[in-house]
Amino acid sequence: MKPEVLALKQQDIFKFNARAKGIPNVINMTIGEPNFPTPDHVKLGAIKAIEENKTHYTVPEGNHELLAAVANYLNVKYGLDYDPLTQIVATTGVTEGVFSAFNAILQPGDEVLIPSPSFTIYGPDASFNKATPVYIDTSKTGFKVTPEVLDQIMTTHPKIKIFLINFPSNPTGVSYTHDELVELSDILRKYDVFVLSDEIYSELTYNYKHESFASFLPEQTILLNGLSKSHAMTGWRFGVVCGPADIVAQINKIHELATTSITSITQAAALEAYTNGFDDPIAMREQYCARRDVLEAGLTKLGFKCPDPDGAFYLFGKIPDGLDQDDVQLCNDILDEEHLAILPGSFFGVGGAGYIRFSYASSMENINGCISKLGDFIKNHTHANETTA
Fold it and tell me: Rg of the Cα trace of the chain?
Protein backbone atom coordinates (compact mmCIF):
# COMPACT_ATOMS: atom_id res chain seq x y z
CA MET A 1 0.00 0.00 0.00
CA LYS A 2 1.30 3.45 -0.89
CA PRO A 3 2.45 5.37 2.20
CA GLU A 4 0.74 8.50 0.83
CA VAL A 5 -2.57 6.63 0.90
CA LEU A 6 -1.99 5.19 4.36
CA ALA A 7 -1.25 8.70 5.63
CA LEU A 8 -4.62 10.00 4.45
CA LYS A 9 -7.35 10.35 7.07
CA GLN A 10 -11.10 10.61 6.74
CA GLN A 11 -12.15 14.24 6.76
CA ASP A 12 -13.17 15.40 10.26
CA ILE A 13 -16.16 17.24 8.86
CA PHE A 14 -17.56 14.01 7.42
CA LYS A 15 -17.06 12.12 10.69
CA PHE A 16 -18.72 14.90 12.66
CA ASN A 17 -21.68 15.02 10.27
CA ALA A 18 -22.08 11.25 10.51
CA ARG A 19 -22.34 11.59 14.28
CA ALA A 20 -24.80 14.46 13.99
CA LYS A 21 -27.05 12.47 11.67
CA GLY A 22 -27.44 9.82 14.35
CA ILE A 23 -28.98 12.29 16.80
CA PRO A 24 -32.79 12.75 16.66
CA ASN A 25 -34.21 16.15 15.70
CA VAL A 26 -30.77 17.67 15.19
CA ILE A 27 -30.48 21.16 13.70
CA ASN A 28 -27.61 20.82 11.26
CA MET A 29 -25.73 24.04 10.54
CA THR A 30 -22.62 22.30 9.25
CA ILE A 31 -23.45 21.55 5.64
CA GLY A 32 -22.01 23.74 2.90
CA GLU A 33 -24.87 22.89 0.61
CA PRO A 34 -27.74 25.07 -0.63
CA ASN A 35 -31.11 23.95 0.74
CA PHE A 36 -32.74 25.17 -2.48
CA PRO A 37 -33.77 22.78 -5.26
CA THR A 38 -31.98 22.81 -8.57
CA PRO A 39 -33.87 25.23 -10.87
CA ASP A 40 -36.67 23.51 -12.75
CA HIS A 41 -35.42 24.44 -16.23
CA VAL A 42 -32.06 22.84 -15.42
CA LYS A 43 -33.73 19.62 -14.28
CA LEU A 44 -35.83 19.61 -17.44
CA GLY A 45 -32.67 19.93 -19.51
CA ALA A 46 -31.39 16.72 -17.96
CA ILE A 47 -34.73 14.95 -18.37
CA LYS A 48 -34.82 15.93 -22.05
CA ALA A 49 -31.35 14.46 -22.54
CA ILE A 50 -32.46 11.18 -20.97
CA GLU A 51 -35.59 11.06 -23.12
CA GLU A 52 -33.47 11.68 -26.22
CA ASN A 53 -31.09 8.88 -25.19
CA LYS A 54 -28.12 11.19 -24.79
CA THR A 55 -26.68 8.74 -22.30
CA HIS A 56 -23.35 7.79 -23.83
CA TYR A 57 -19.70 8.74 -23.46
CA THR A 58 -18.65 12.25 -24.36
CA VAL A 59 -15.18 13.53 -25.19
CA PRO A 60 -13.12 13.74 -21.97
CA GLU A 61 -12.97 17.54 -21.76
CA GLY A 62 -16.75 17.83 -22.12
CA ASN A 63 -19.21 18.37 -24.94
CA HIS A 64 -17.97 21.25 -27.05
CA GLU A 65 -21.36 22.97 -27.06
CA LEU A 66 -21.21 22.98 -23.27
CA LEU A 67 -17.65 24.32 -23.19
CA ALA A 68 -18.68 27.15 -25.50
CA ALA A 69 -21.54 28.00 -23.14
CA VAL A 70 -19.14 27.97 -20.17
CA ALA A 71 -16.75 30.30 -21.99
CA ASN A 72 -19.59 32.70 -22.82
CA TYR A 73 -20.91 32.64 -19.24
CA LEU A 74 -17.49 33.41 -17.76
CA ASN A 75 -17.01 36.19 -20.29
CA VAL A 76 -20.37 37.84 -19.56
CA LYS A 77 -20.12 37.42 -15.79
CA TYR A 78 -16.43 38.15 -15.17
CA GLY A 79 -14.93 39.44 -18.40
CA LEU A 80 -12.76 36.33 -18.88
CA ASP A 81 -11.68 35.22 -22.34
CA TYR A 82 -11.17 31.46 -22.69
CA ASP A 83 -10.98 29.37 -25.85
CA PRO A 84 -13.57 26.67 -25.16
CA LEU A 85 -11.70 24.04 -27.17
CA THR A 86 -8.29 24.41 -25.55
CA GLN A 87 -8.66 26.22 -22.23
CA ILE A 88 -11.60 24.57 -20.40
CA VAL A 89 -12.17 21.08 -19.00
CA ALA A 90 -15.43 19.97 -17.37
CA THR A 91 -14.68 18.06 -14.15
CA THR A 92 -16.52 16.11 -11.49
CA GLY A 93 -16.92 19.16 -9.29
CA VAL A 94 -14.16 21.47 -8.09
CA THR A 95 -12.91 18.64 -5.87
CA GLU A 96 -11.78 16.65 -8.90
CA GLY A 97 -10.48 19.83 -10.48
CA VAL A 98 -8.12 20.41 -7.55
CA PHE A 99 -7.04 16.76 -7.56
CA SER A 100 -6.37 16.68 -11.31
CA ALA A 101 -4.53 20.01 -11.30
CA PHE A 102 -2.27 18.95 -8.42
CA ASN A 103 -1.56 15.62 -10.09
CA ALA A 104 -0.64 17.35 -13.34
CA ILE A 105 1.64 19.98 -11.82
CA LEU A 106 3.26 18.79 -8.60
CA GLN A 107 6.46 16.81 -8.25
CA PRO A 108 7.95 15.31 -5.07
CA GLY A 109 9.54 18.05 -3.00
CA ASP A 110 7.36 20.87 -4.36
CA GLU A 111 5.45 23.09 -1.95
CA VAL A 112 1.87 24.40 -2.09
CA LEU A 113 1.11 27.68 -0.36
CA ILE A 114 -2.34 27.69 1.25
CA PRO A 115 -3.97 30.54 3.20
CA SER A 116 -5.52 29.06 6.33
CA PRO A 117 -8.06 28.34 7.75
CA SER A 118 -9.13 26.72 4.50
CA PHE A 119 -11.30 24.04 2.96
CA THR A 120 -10.08 20.66 4.09
CA ILE A 121 -9.02 18.92 0.86
CA TYR A 122 -6.20 21.20 -0.25
CA GLY A 123 -3.47 20.07 2.17
CA PRO A 124 -4.14 16.32 1.82
CA ASP A 125 -4.23 16.67 -1.97
CA ALA A 126 -0.78 18.26 -1.85
CA SER A 127 0.62 15.63 0.51
CA PHE A 128 -0.81 12.81 -1.62
CA ASN A 129 1.31 14.14 -4.48
CA LYS A 130 4.46 14.12 -2.27
CA ALA A 131 4.39 17.90 -2.04
CA THR A 132 4.44 19.86 1.21
CA PRO A 133 1.57 22.18 2.15
CA VAL A 134 2.80 25.49 3.55
CA TYR A 135 0.09 27.33 5.48
CA ILE A 136 -0.32 31.08 5.95
CA ASP A 137 -2.12 31.81 9.23
CA THR A 138 -4.54 34.59 8.22
CA SER A 139 -6.35 34.81 11.57
CA LYS A 140 -4.40 37.95 12.55
CA THR A 141 -4.94 39.75 9.22
CA GLY A 142 -8.72 39.59 8.87
CA PHE A 143 -8.51 36.12 7.32
CA LYS A 144 -6.90 37.54 4.19
CA VAL A 145 -3.43 37.16 2.73
CA THR A 146 -1.51 40.43 2.78
CA PRO A 147 0.93 41.24 -0.04
CA GLU A 148 3.74 41.75 2.47
CA VAL A 149 3.35 38.27 3.98
CA LEU A 150 2.88 36.68 0.56
CA ASP A 151 6.07 38.25 -0.81
CA GLN A 152 8.05 37.23 2.27
CA ILE A 153 6.95 33.59 2.08
CA MET A 154 7.47 33.37 -1.68
CA THR A 155 11.00 34.72 -1.21
CA THR A 156 11.89 32.27 1.55
CA HIS A 157 10.23 29.21 -0.01
CA PRO A 158 11.66 28.77 -3.51
CA LYS A 159 10.05 25.31 -3.84
CA ILE A 160 6.52 26.72 -3.90
CA LYS A 161 4.91 25.60 -7.16
CA ILE A 162 1.27 26.50 -6.49
CA PHE A 163 -0.38 29.29 -4.55
CA LEU A 164 -3.91 28.17 -3.80
CA ILE A 165 -6.52 30.79 -3.01
CA ASN A 166 -10.24 30.34 -2.34
CA PHE A 167 -12.55 33.34 -2.39
CA PRO A 168 -15.17 34.00 -1.24
CA SER A 169 -13.74 31.75 1.41
CA ASN A 170 -14.88 28.54 2.97
CA PRO A 171 -14.88 28.65 6.02
CA THR A 172 -14.69 32.39 6.74
CA GLY A 173 -16.85 34.03 4.07
CA VAL A 174 -14.26 36.74 3.40
CA SER A 175 -13.31 37.79 -0.12
CA TYR A 176 -10.94 40.20 -1.86
CA THR A 177 -11.50 43.64 -3.34
CA HIS A 178 -10.21 44.81 -6.71
CA ASP A 179 -7.24 46.62 -5.13
CA GLU A 180 -6.32 43.63 -2.97
CA LEU A 181 -6.32 41.32 -5.99
CA VAL A 182 -4.12 43.78 -7.89
CA GLU A 183 -1.60 43.79 -5.04
CA LEU A 184 -1.49 40.00 -4.74
CA SER A 185 -1.18 39.47 -8.49
CA ASP A 186 1.67 42.01 -8.67
CA ILE A 187 3.58 39.94 -6.09
CA LEU A 188 2.92 36.58 -7.75
CA ARG A 189 3.89 37.87 -11.19
CA LYS A 190 7.48 37.95 -9.98
CA TYR A 191 7.61 34.22 -9.30
CA ASP A 192 7.48 31.03 -11.34
CA VAL A 193 4.33 29.77 -9.67
CA PHE A 194 0.81 28.75 -10.62
CA VAL A 195 -2.19 30.34 -8.93
CA LEU A 196 -4.95 27.79 -8.35
CA SER A 197 -7.99 29.99 -7.72
CA ASP A 198 -11.04 28.21 -6.29
CA GLU A 199 -13.93 30.58 -7.00
CA ILE A 200 -16.87 28.20 -6.58
CA TYR A 201 -18.71 30.85 -4.51
CA SER A 202 -18.22 33.62 -7.10
CA GLU A 203 -21.97 34.13 -7.61
CA LEU A 204 -22.54 34.40 -3.86
CA THR A 205 -20.68 37.65 -3.27
CA TYR A 206 -22.59 40.28 -1.30
CA ASN A 207 -20.59 43.40 -0.54
CA TYR A 208 -19.02 44.01 -3.96
CA LYS A 209 -18.94 42.44 -7.39
CA HIS A 210 -16.75 39.37 -7.66
CA GLU A 211 -13.66 39.67 -9.83
CA SER A 212 -11.68 36.60 -10.81
CA PHE A 213 -7.99 36.22 -10.09
CA ALA A 214 -7.69 35.19 -13.73
CA SER A 215 -8.56 38.76 -14.71
CA PHE A 216 -5.35 40.00 -13.12
CA LEU A 217 -2.90 37.17 -13.80
CA PRO A 218 -4.30 35.07 -16.69
CA GLU A 219 -0.96 33.61 -17.76
CA GLN A 220 -0.40 31.97 -14.36
CA THR A 221 -3.92 31.35 -13.06
CA ILE A 222 -5.83 28.09 -13.15
CA LEU A 223 -9.46 28.94 -12.40
CA LEU A 224 -11.76 26.48 -10.65
CA ASN A 225 -15.49 27.11 -10.73
CA GLY A 226 -18.78 25.28 -11.22
CA LEU A 227 -22.49 25.12 -10.49
CA SER A 228 -22.72 23.47 -7.06
CA LYS A 229 -23.25 26.64 -5.04
CA SER A 230 -24.55 29.13 -7.61
CA HIS A 231 -27.29 26.87 -9.01
CA ALA A 232 -27.87 24.51 -6.05
CA MET A 233 -26.39 21.59 -7.98
CA THR A 234 -24.05 19.92 -5.46
CA GLY A 235 -25.27 16.42 -6.29
CA TRP A 236 -24.80 16.88 -10.03
CA ARG A 237 -21.02 17.14 -9.51
CA PHE A 238 -20.13 19.69 -12.16
CA GLY A 239 -17.04 21.86 -12.16
CA VAL A 240 -14.70 23.49 -14.64
CA VAL A 241 -10.96 24.02 -14.83
CA CYS A 242 -9.88 26.95 -16.99
CA GLY A 243 -6.46 28.36 -17.75
CA PRO A 244 -3.57 28.56 -20.19
CA ALA A 245 -3.96 25.99 -22.96
CA ASP A 246 -0.66 24.20 -22.31
CA ILE A 247 -1.42 23.39 -18.66
CA VAL A 248 -5.12 22.68 -19.25
CA ALA A 249 -4.09 20.04 -21.79
CA GLN A 250 -2.02 18.31 -19.11
CA ILE A 251 -4.81 18.54 -16.53
CA ASN A 252 -7.17 16.98 -19.05
CA LYS A 253 -4.86 13.94 -19.29
CA ILE A 254 -5.26 13.31 -15.55
CA HIS A 255 -8.98 14.02 -15.72
CA GLU A 256 -9.34 11.48 -18.54
CA LEU A 257 -7.52 8.80 -16.54
CA ALA A 258 -9.70 9.44 -13.47
CA THR A 259 -13.14 9.73 -15.08
CA THR A 260 -13.08 9.19 -18.87
CA SER A 261 -15.61 12.03 -18.86
CA ILE A 262 -18.27 13.36 -16.52
CA THR A 263 -21.80 12.08 -17.06
CA SER A 264 -23.63 13.13 -20.20
CA ILE A 265 -26.75 13.89 -18.16
CA THR A 266 -24.90 16.28 -15.86
CA GLN A 267 -23.44 17.97 -18.91
CA ALA A 268 -26.94 18.44 -20.35
CA ALA A 269 -28.08 20.06 -17.11
CA ALA A 270 -24.96 22.25 -17.02
CA LEU A 271 -25.52 23.37 -20.61
CA GLU A 272 -29.01 24.56 -19.67
CA ALA A 273 -27.69 26.33 -16.56
CA TYR A 274 -24.94 28.13 -18.45
CA THR A 275 -27.23 29.02 -21.37
CA ASN A 276 -30.47 30.06 -19.68
CA GLY A 277 -29.58 30.29 -16.00
CA PHE A 278 -27.67 33.58 -15.79
CA ASP A 279 -30.14 34.97 -13.26
CA ASP A 280 -30.76 31.78 -11.28
CA PRO A 281 -28.42 32.75 -8.42
CA ILE A 282 -30.12 36.10 -7.76
CA ALA A 283 -33.12 34.94 -5.71
CA MET A 284 -30.97 32.51 -3.73
CA ARG A 285 -28.37 35.19 -3.06
CA GLU A 286 -31.05 37.53 -1.73
CA GLN A 287 -32.29 34.89 0.69
CA TYR A 288 -28.75 34.10 1.81
CA CYS A 289 -28.29 37.79 2.61
CA ALA A 290 -31.40 37.80 4.78
CA ARG A 291 -30.27 34.63 6.58
CA ARG A 292 -26.78 36.00 7.05
CA ASP A 293 -28.11 39.15 8.66
CA VAL A 294 -30.32 37.23 11.10
CA LEU A 295 -27.59 34.77 12.05
CA GLU A 296 -24.89 37.43 12.37
CA ALA A 297 -27.10 39.58 14.59
CA GLY A 298 -27.95 36.60 16.78
CA LEU A 299 -24.34 35.48 17.12
CA THR A 300 -23.16 39.01 17.89
CA LYS A 301 -25.75 39.26 20.65
CA LEU A 302 -24.43 36.01 22.11
CA GLY A 303 -20.87 37.35 22.14
CA PHE A 304 -19.42 35.81 18.97
CA LYS A 305 -17.17 37.96 16.80
CA CYS A 306 -17.16 37.15 13.08
CA PRO A 307 -15.10 38.49 10.19
CA ASP A 308 -17.23 40.46 7.77
CA PRO A 309 -18.92 37.87 5.53
CA ASP A 310 -18.34 39.14 1.99
CA GLY A 311 -19.69 36.01 0.34
CA ALA A 312 -20.33 32.24 0.42
CA PHE A 313 -22.75 31.16 3.16
CA TYR A 314 -20.64 30.83 6.28
CA LEU A 315 -20.01 32.78 9.46
CA PHE A 316 -16.79 32.04 11.31
CA GLY A 317 -17.39 33.00 14.91
CA LYS A 318 -14.75 33.51 17.62
CA ILE A 319 -15.83 31.62 20.73
CA PRO A 320 -16.81 34.13 23.45
CA ASP A 321 -14.81 34.36 26.65
CA GLY A 322 -16.29 32.22 29.40
CA LEU A 323 -16.93 29.23 27.15
CA ASP A 324 -14.60 26.30 26.59
CA GLN A 325 -12.04 27.54 24.07
CA ASP A 326 -11.42 24.00 22.85
CA ASP A 327 -13.65 24.33 19.79
CA VAL A 328 -13.77 20.57 19.11
CA GLN A 329 -14.89 19.74 22.64
CA LEU A 330 -17.30 22.66 22.67
CA CYS A 331 -19.00 21.67 19.43
CA ASN A 332 -19.33 18.08 20.63
CA ASP A 333 -20.86 19.29 23.91
CA ILE A 334 -23.32 21.53 22.04
CA LEU A 335 -24.27 18.63 19.79
CA ASP A 336 -24.87 16.32 22.75
CA GLU A 337 -26.75 18.80 24.93
CA GLU A 338 -28.66 20.91 22.42
CA HIS A 339 -28.82 18.68 19.33
CA LEU A 340 -27.24 21.52 17.37
CA ALA A 341 -24.52 20.61 14.85
CA ILE A 342 -21.90 23.30 14.11
CA LEU A 343 -18.33 22.73 13.00
CA PRO A 344 -15.15 23.36 15.01
CA GLY A 345 -12.85 25.87 13.41
CA SER A 346 -9.90 23.57 14.08
CA PHE A 347 -11.20 21.25 11.37
CA PHE A 348 -10.16 23.93 8.86
CA GLY A 349 -6.55 24.01 9.92
CA VAL A 350 -4.07 26.63 11.03
CA GLY A 351 -5.75 29.75 12.41
CA GLY A 352 -9.10 28.02 12.98
CA ALA A 353 -8.71 27.02 16.63
CA GLY A 354 -11.09 28.85 18.95
CA TYR A 355 -13.64 29.47 16.18
CA ILE A 356 -16.86 27.81 15.04
CA ARG A 357 -18.16 27.67 11.48
CA PHE A 358 -21.89 28.23 11.02
CA SER A 359 -23.49 27.52 7.63
CA TYR A 360 -26.50 29.64 6.73
CA ALA A 361 -27.25 27.51 3.67
CA SER A 362 -30.19 26.35 5.74
CA SER A 363 -33.75 27.42 6.44
CA MET A 364 -34.57 30.54 8.44
CA GLU A 365 -36.34 28.22 10.88
CA ASN A 366 -33.08 26.36 11.47
CA ILE A 367 -31.14 29.60 11.80
CA ASN A 368 -33.50 30.88 14.49
CA GLY A 369 -33.39 27.46 16.15
CA CYS A 370 -29.60 27.58 16.11
CA ILE A 371 -29.53 30.96 17.83
CA SER A 372 -32.04 29.79 20.44
CA LYS A 373 -30.22 26.55 21.23
CA LEU A 374 -26.85 28.25 21.34
CA GLY A 375 -28.30 30.86 23.69
CA ASP A 376 -29.62 28.14 25.97
CA PHE A 377 -26.25 26.40 26.01
CA ILE A 378 -24.39 29.61 26.85
CA LYS A 379 -26.90 30.50 29.56
CA ASN A 380 -26.67 27.08 31.18
CA HIS A 381 -22.90 26.95 31.09
CA THR A 382 -22.41 30.53 32.19
CA HIS A 383 -24.70 29.86 35.16
CA ALA A 384 -22.75 26.68 35.94
CA ASN A 385 -19.44 28.56 35.83
CA GLU A 386 -20.76 31.28 38.11
CA THR A 387 -22.06 28.69 40.59
CA THR A 388 -18.72 26.88 40.58
CA ALA A 389 -16.88 30.14 41.14
Answer: 21
